[in-house]
Amino acid sequence: MKILPKTYTPSEIEDKLYQRWMDRGYFHAEVDEKKKAFCIVMPPPNITGQLHMGHALDNTMQDILIRFRRMQGYSALWQPGTDHAAIATEVKVIEKLKKEGRDKEQLGREKFLEECWAWKDEYGNRIINQLKKLGSSADWDRERFTMDEGCSEAVKEVFLRLYEKGYIYRGSRIINWCPVCQTTISDAEVEHVDKDGFFWHIKYPIVGEDGAYVEIATTRPETLLGDTAVAVNPDDARYTALVGKMLKLPLTEREIPVIADSYVDPEFGTGCVKITPAHDPNDFEVGKRHNLPEITILNDDATIRCPGSPYDGMNRYEARKAMVKDLEAAGLLVKVVPHSHAVGVHDRCKTVIEPMIKPQWFVKMEEMAKPAIAALKSGELKFVPESYGKTYLNWLEGIHDWCISRQLWWGHRIPAYYCDKCGEVIVAREMPHTCPHCGGHSFRQEEDTLDTWFSSALWPFSTLGWPEETPEYRYFYPTDVLVTGYDIIFFWVIRMVFSGIEQTGKLPFHTVLIHGLVRDAEGRKMSKSLGNGIDPLEVIDRYGADALRLTLMTGNAPGNDMRFYWERVEAARNFANKIWNAARFIEMNLGETMPAEPAASALLPQDRWVLHQLNRLTGEVTENLEKFELGIALQKVYDFIWEEFCDWYIEMVKPRLWNKEDPTREAALWTLREVLSRALKLLHPFMPFITEEVFLSLNEEDSIMVSPWPVEEARFVFPEDAAEVERVKDAVREIRRIRTSMNVAPGQQAEVFVVSEDEAVLDSFRRAEDFFRVLGRASEVKLQKDKTGIREDAVSAVIPGAMIYIPFADLVDVEKEKERLAKEEARLESEIARADGMLRNEKFLAKAPADKVAAEQEKRKKYEEMLEKVREQRKMLGA
């Protein structure tokens, strides 16, 4: 029998065990028709990534589910991989080139892409290796990359299918433009943040009516250069006579019409709205309805494009200042009103985006959204917690066409080709040879690449070999559960759902398990700007991966944010130590023996009690995991190991272990080893490393990872024994309570009487006498049906079916206790008087911080409670 080292040192076991698992292929899942399939796809981390607490939580949850199902006998595939992360990677590579004195444009597309692939080779595996440190049991043999050959073929296939179906089109529409990243971004990548700004009220003179004007209010005065109308509500009596008249557009030589459109809210602002179709999505729709010109007045870098104007070439904000100054000088600025409003910023670089009209590629979303909505409403798709289904529905029900083109070089290049002779657009897998329109033979490929989410939307099936009908695709698809944060429901989850249904006819998964953010101890989001981020690798280096995993899952409820406390990590490490020490204790008592399972009749009530408790726990934990109640399952296992097994059962059996001649000693040893081994299996998905090390030291098996998950068994159902031992535990708790309240020294033993008219109750204490005497620190245990021989001053306690009595004199030296209590009473009275003095002091109450006053009030309350207990004890002693 192997005996564990004296000290539990995570760094000495974790890497070694992980390599052992890898070498033996335990993470690898095969197509096996004899087994049920279970599959989770890993949200592919970016190749620019560094492991952070969000990754650690997300992957710990996935690992728990995959380890649980693997032990249950499923062919459990956790499909890993990484994302090319178009914008993020391109920005990183451009930054790297700048430091080297090189430029993207000078390099050219092909050379720049070589740099991107070199970046992928250097940094692509960094976060994967960090996930391995966490204990992630993904099938690394099947690792994929969103731009590998197979995934790229899937992307091309989907693009062609959607184009042929008429769902992909190219057109000039209003898009979100990032002036810093110099690319289109989707609505999902726009964050709306509140910013302090102004409403500038401006006069637009009415042509031909000297001194007459309409007043508009705008938060973006620089865009007036692109105005092509002013709109009023057709039912607004104030402006009915104005409709059809022309206005002189300030700071320009142009005239624009007044139009009527129900889009205008007559209650908001002045009731007159400037219409800039090229730079506002709502104005764009108004412009289409009224055939208004679309005048683009911004360059891609957000400088003003207005040839002949003094503002041409100015930065958008510099132009704003200059134009406001000129409006004021011309007498056209009515007033400036402070106004806080939501501004759209790029979620990656935080630059204020500009709505702009550009020719882009779009996906029509109306038809594809319908089955994705129906899947949730029918219950075929479930969110855990259910409330996040509303986020999903709200986004889908208000969805716009998806702009999928990006002005980037790194990514999947759009498979569209333009005929150099006639401009015909041909969408094809490869460069065409002949133009079907003009017969030309010269083509150029579309420069734009696809939105990153276009490829990651296909992840659940592209990773399994689709569009080929591979054995893996047929067996593992649809996948089972998606584990992700609530922040990417509309980025990724929705797109996977409608893409899965459209391309495969099936949902990509049946359940979406949502987790929250990991926040700091003060509840703040971890961020670089706040400097409050905690590196998971630092936690692993200091305390081990198991302690980090336990910390992240303790109290974890789906969808809820959690706070990270170092104290919790230390508590998790202490739990690991508890397990380690319990295992060492068992091993040292086992020696060279490996006891066989005894007959149930050979087990004592305490053995049957702990087996019964574990059996019930097994059923509950299995059910919790199947319902994705991971935090609840963990807490139950934690409580059983720490309290029921270590604090109670081990202490109960010690008298039997100490006596080598005890005929029940072997039954106790078998129970100890069996219960801990089974409990370790329940804990394994949460704390894989320590459970493996301890399990292998107790059992002659290959690995806990591939051992069967425990199931409830009728042979371990012992309700009567469980009830009997729980009664004895109640008695021990009451004795401990009495001793604590009376400050009895730990080594002080006392006579204990158990009184009950029920012979069955007394029998239960007879059967438990050896451990009851030890745990109750009893010099002697007397079992009787009445109070005969028990002194009147005996301290008593009630438990179900019996009374416990302890002679007072056995517990304390009465005279010494009277003296101690008198001193304690005087001390507490003094403390109360001091607190009263402070709380009646008007200067203190006026100047002290509120929390200090509250603390003093709390102290006084505590002293009052303590004084009341002391006086009760003195009264009992007759002092």
Distance between the termini: 59 Å
Mean pLDDT: 93
Percent helix, as a range, is: 40-55%
Radius of gyration: 37 Å
Q: Which overall shape is indicated by the principal axes computed on the Cα atoms? A: globular
* Protein structure class: alpha/beta
Give the biggest sheet: 4 strands, antiparallel
Order of strands in the sheet with most strands: 6-5-14-16
Strand fraction equals 15-25%
Q: Which blocks of ≥5 consecutive residues have pLDDT under 50?
A: none
Notable traits:
29 strands; single chain; 4-stranded mixed β-sheet; 4-stranded antiparallel β-sheet; 879 residues; alpha/beta
Please characterize this protein's 3D structure.
With 879 residues, the chain is of the alpha/beta class. Strand 18 and strand 19 form a beta hairpin. Helix 20 (630-658) packs across helix 25 (769-775). The chain is globular, with a radius of gyration of 37 Å. The protein has a four-stranded antiparallel beta sheet with strand order 6-5-14-16. It has a four-stranded mixed beta sheet with strand order 10-11-9-12. Strands 27-26-29-28 form a four-stranded mixed beta sheet. It has 29 helices and 29 strands.
